[in-house]
Amino acid sequence: MKTALDIRHPMFDFPRPFAEMEDLRSHTSFEIGGPAEFFFRPACRAELARAVRRCREAGLPARILGRGTNLLVADQGVEGAVISTAGLQGVAIAGDTVTADCGVGLPRLVALAAERGLSGLERLAGIPGSLGGAIRMNAGAADGCIGDVVEDVLVITPGGDIATLDAAEIGFGYRCSGLDGAIVVSATLSLHPSGRERVLRATKAHARRKKMTQPTGKGTAGCVFKNPPSGSAGGILDRLGLKGARAGGAKVSEKHANFIVNSGRASADDVMALIGRAREAVFRTLGIELDLEIEIWPSSA
C-alpha cells in the first residue's frame, strides 16, 4: 500500500494528529478488515471540512466513516485516507426540531427524542448507526425511514462547497438517497409532540422487536441485502436453506437469514464467500439479483 504523498506535507498540519495504518477492525461492528493508510478524526465541523478539502487538494482518496455498522472492509485494508466522524457529536433541540452532527449515534437521538416526548424516530430504535450514515442510506424499518423526518441536511458537495439541501432535493428512496457523493455534516429533523410515555413505550416496543428477530451488537453489520421488489431478502434466503451456512469464521445468522455474523475469527473473504453463495442461490432458483445493503471497502460486490 503506497501513496505518492509525503505525509510531512503541510496539508497534513492538522490541529489534531492523524494515524498511519490504523486498524479498521476496531472501527466497524463486523470487526473485520485491514488498515487505513491514513486515519483522521476531526473534532468539529470546521475540521471535517478542512480534512476533506486538504485530501482533495493533495489528490488523496478519502472515505468517510461513521460508526461502521453497515460496512465490510477488505482484509488488505484501504489506500488513502479514512475520515472518522466520531468526534462530531453536537445536538440541539428547539421545540419539535432536532439538529445534530453527522457523528451522533442514532440510539442517542432516539433516546433524546423519546425523553422529550417527540415522535418520529421510534421506528429507528435498535439501529446502531450514525446520523450521517443513516441519512446517506435512508436507514429505517418496514414502517418508515429516517428520510421521513429529515427537514434539511448540511453537506460538503463533491466540489468542496458547503450547501444546505432540503429533503426534496436529496430524493430519499428505499435504502438510498440522492446525495451523489456529498458528505453529510449535520441534519435537521422535524418531529412532533406525542407525549413522553407514549413515545417511550413505542420506542421500547420497536427495540424489543428488533432484538427478538435480529442478531445485534458486535460481529454483524445489519442486513446484508436490500429487499427485492418481490419480497423479503431474509425470507427468501431462509426458504432456500441458507440459515447457518458457513464460510471460514463467517456464518449466516440462524436468527435472521439476511445477517452474516463474525464468529470471532472471520475474514472479509469469508463474508464475501457467503455473499456470493447467497446471491448465486437466489439467482439460480428465482432469477432475482440481490443488491447489497452493506457497503464494501474498497470496492462493491
Secondary structure: elements and pairs:
Elements: E1 19-23, E2 35-40, H1 45-58, E3 62-65, E4 71-73, E5 78-84, E6 91-94, E7 97-101, H2 106-115, E8 118-119, H3 131-137, E9 140-141, E10 144-145, E11 150-156, E12 162-166, H4 167-170, E13 183-190, E14 192-193, H5 196-213, H6 233-239, E15 246-247, E16 250-252, E17 260-262, H7 268-286, E18 295-297
Parallel strand pairs: 2-5, 3-5, 4-18
Antiparallel strand pairs: 1-2, 6-7, 7-13, 8-14, 9-10, 11-12, 11-13, 15-16, 16-17
Helix pairs in contact: 2-5
Report on the architecture of this protein:
By secondary structure, the protein is an alpha+beta fold. It has three domains: 10-84, Uridine Diphospho-n-acetylenolpyruvylglucosamine Reductase, domain 2, CATH 3.30.43; 91-213, 2-Layer Sandwich (Uridine Diphospho-n-acetylenolpyruvylglucosamine Reductase, domain 3); 233-297, Uridine Diphospho-n-acetylenolpyruvylglucosamine Reductase, domain 1 (Alpha-Beta Complex). Helix content is 26%, strand content 24%. The protein has helices at residues 45-58, 106-115, 131-137, 167-170, 196-213, 233-239, 268-286, and strands spanning 19-23, 35-40, 62-65, 71-73, 78-84, 91-94, 97-101, 118-119, 140-141, 144-145, 150-156, 162-166, 183-190, 192-193, 246-247, 250-252, 260-262, 295-297. Strand 15 (246-247) and strand 16 (250-252) form a beta hairpin. The protein is globular and about 50 Å long. The model has no long low-confidence stretch (mean pLDDT 92).
